[in-house]
Structure to design on (674 residues):
């Protein structure tokens, strides 16, 4: 539901308000209750009068980006990452600044004029955002310290059925959660659209305690490894092979019966699926697991995460949607 | 049309060296009413002519139409593309949206999640770069791969877009022809939109025009001062007006004419030191044919050869004003010769 709009919406950790407002607009009919907490987590629920298990789906609203941390005499903005963003992906990229979305561009000293150590990998100290301001004062007014800076990458689709956009992590999860809310359930279904995942899974911690579900499923984008820069053995997931189910990652051991129920649902629905073949990484599940909750994670494989332009397969998104629907329908027997 | 409108249109076109047709096609349509005739030559140059008084000097204004681009060098298993990227600032490529044959793709990179512990961010080598077209039929070897970044308005009348090198100058030449719609020039004018500048300036060198012209002016872009360019205090100022080149490419009489024209037009200008090769079409024009008085006028630009090039619209307009003043005031051929 609105994957393009969701990806093009803008929200760094702690500044999720634009994305949250969009998600509220996109909430399907049938949602019975919408609430919000102090952090900005958005909760939507349906089937509240049903008797079955309480199921919680989680998808995070925030995306990695940058923050304005200072200004130069020439009117440029100094930046630091908000979430994990390598300085290597920044040079030359278009950005939007602040909630108003001022156009900016990340400048770099031309290669012609750089040599020796200047040509080494750029660091945050070397980079700046040019919004056209010509004085420090003007820059401070246009883009005060603390404003968010997001990548400006229009969503587009390739001939081969892939899509390219910023922030698939985790707008694809938000998209899946919204589509789950559109369907009738015979148990209470809660969705938490969480904040601040990218700076330490902070929204999910509160969401777990507030909802206290019988089982929780995290909907995510996960790193693919099917690219020429990785040896085959390092492959985590492959784009186009279907949703990835987590056996274990750096911070969570998902509930085995729950994950097996997802495998059965995938096979029942006749959709391709794959194990996530990496024990690194993590997601909001890591915030819920220590609370003693049964958690699982289903992710859409995605290349070039945390960069201005990531890529996923639209067939994987559709398969994830079908798997999720099938799983939710089958849940009564599971829990 | 305003400078901004010309630039919005012109930077949306894609024209790798040798494939300038898209720019030429656009210009053919938009300059039809602004020029007396349009001609082409075998080297791929398009020339827009504006007639002046018979026997008045012929001024050749050369602005290159091409832009830097990558080219597909090989198709890897999985449909990934290896590319050659001469002149491209490789540091801009990771995570950049690009296009080939009008279709979107992305320059791949390893996400931090999959990097091995502590692996530092290394600068990319050309052989590290790969383009992911997201499936479908891969484009054939040789296909140009362009930055897919839309032009954007910044504050203070600045504009950022790829290919401002050298569409900024193409726009200045278009604006010149537009300015001369209502003002009679006192020279004959040939605006040449040259081919292949980014590939050794082939187009300008072959301009047969050089033999007929009395003055050759290369209009190009040059490095503007920007943060982190250290030890380069002599760079041009963005917004400081056209940079008039000083050096062996610009004989003193031509330099005087350019400076006089800028002053008479009432625009700010700056002197750009060019101790050797000016790096512009002017260098080739000067020694074309029997030798030609040449000048170099450049528009300051930041982050050259990246997707984030930036110009000030006022510099484009001031460049046009300088050229329009020169064309309307005219000059005598002898003015261009050393005493």
């Amino acid at each position: 539901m609105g994957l393009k709009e969701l990806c093009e919406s803008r929200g760094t950790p702690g500044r999720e308000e634009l994305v949250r407002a969009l998600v509220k607009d996109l909430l399907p009919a049938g949602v019975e209750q919408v609430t919000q907490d102090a952090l900005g987590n958005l909760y939507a629920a349906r089937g509240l009068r049903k008797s079955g298990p309480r199921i919680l789906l989680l998808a995070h609203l925030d995306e990695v980006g940058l923050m304005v941390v200072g200004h130069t005499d020439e009117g440029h903005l100094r930046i630091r990452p908000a979430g994990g963003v390598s300085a290597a992906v920044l040079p030359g990229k278009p950005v939007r600044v602040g909630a108003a979305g001022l156009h900016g561009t990340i400048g770099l000293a031309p290669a012609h004029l750089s040599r020796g150590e200047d040509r080494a990998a750029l660091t945050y100290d070397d980079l700046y955002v040019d919004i056209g301001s010509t004085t420090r004062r003007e820059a401070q007014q246009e883009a005060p310290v603390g404003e968010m800076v997001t990548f400006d990458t229009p969503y587009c689709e390739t001939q081969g059925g892939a899509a390219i956009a910023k922030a698939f992590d985790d707008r694809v999860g938000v998209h899946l959660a919204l589509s789950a809310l559109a369907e009738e359930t015979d148990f209470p279904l809660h969705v938490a659209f969480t904040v601040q995942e990218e700076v330490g899974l902070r929204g999910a911690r509160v969401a777990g305690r507030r909802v206290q579900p019988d089982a929780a499923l995290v909907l995510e984008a996960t790193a693919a490894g099917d690219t020429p820069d990785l040896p085959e053995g390092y492959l985590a997931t492959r784009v186009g092979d279907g949703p990835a189910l987590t056996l274990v990652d750096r911070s969570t051991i998902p509930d085995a019966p729950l994950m097996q129920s997802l495998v059965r649902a995938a096979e029942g629905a006749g959709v391709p699926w794959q194990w996530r073949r990496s024990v690194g990484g993590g997601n909001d599940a890591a915030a819920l697991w220590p609370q003693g909750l049964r958690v699982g994670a289903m992710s859409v494989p995605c290349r070039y995460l945390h960069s201005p332009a990531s890529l996923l397969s639209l067939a994987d998104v559709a398969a994830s949607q079908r798997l999720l629907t099938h799983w939710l329908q089958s849940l009564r027997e599971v829990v | 049309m305003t400078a901004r409108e010309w630039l919005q249109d012109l930077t949306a076109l894609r024209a790798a060296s040798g494939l300038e047709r898209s720019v030429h096609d656009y210009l053919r349509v938009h300059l039809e009413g602004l020029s007396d005739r349009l001609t082409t030559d075998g080297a791929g140059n398009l020339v827009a002519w504006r007639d002046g008084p018979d026997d008045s000097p012929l001024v050749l204004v050369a602005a290159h139409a091409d832009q830097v681009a990558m080219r597909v060098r090989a198709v890897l298993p999985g449909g990934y593309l290896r590319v050659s990227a001469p002149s491209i600032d490789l540091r801009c490529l990771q995570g950049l949206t690009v296009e080939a044959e009008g279709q979107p793709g992305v320059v791949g990179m390893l996400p931090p999640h999959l990097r091995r512990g502590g692996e530092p961010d290394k600068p990319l080598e050309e052989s590290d770069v790969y383009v992911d077209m997201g499936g479908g039929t891969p484009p054939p070897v040789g296909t140009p791969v362009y930055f897919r970044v839309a032009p954007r308005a910044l504050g203070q009348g600045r504009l950022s877009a790829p290919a401002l090198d050298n569409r900024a100058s193409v726009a200045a030449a278009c604006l010149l022809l537009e300015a001369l719609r209502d003002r009679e020039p006192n020279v004959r004018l040939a605006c040449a939109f040259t081919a292949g500048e980014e590939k050794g300036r082939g187009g300008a060198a072959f301009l047969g025009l050089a033999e007929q012209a009395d003055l050759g002016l290369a209009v190009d872009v040059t490095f503007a001062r920007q943060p982190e360019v250290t030890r380069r205090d002599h760079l041009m100022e963005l917004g400081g007006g056209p940079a008039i080149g000083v050096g062996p490419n610009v004989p003193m009489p031509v330099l005087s004419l350019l400076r006089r024209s800028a002053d008479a037009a009432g625009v700010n200008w700056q002197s750009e030191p060019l101790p050797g090769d000016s790096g512009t079409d002017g260098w080739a024009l000067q020694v074309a044919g029997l030798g030609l008085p040449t000048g170099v006028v450049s528009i300051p630009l930041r982050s050259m050869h990246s997707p984030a090039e930036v110009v000030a619209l006022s510099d484009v307009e001031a460049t046009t004003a300088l050229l329009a003043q020169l064309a309307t005031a005219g000059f005598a051929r002898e003015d261009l010769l050393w005493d």
Q: What stands out?
A: The two ends of chain A are 28 Å apart (CA to CA). Chain A touches chain B through 75 residues (CB under 8 Å). Residues 201 and 284 of chain A are 5 Å apart (CA to CA).
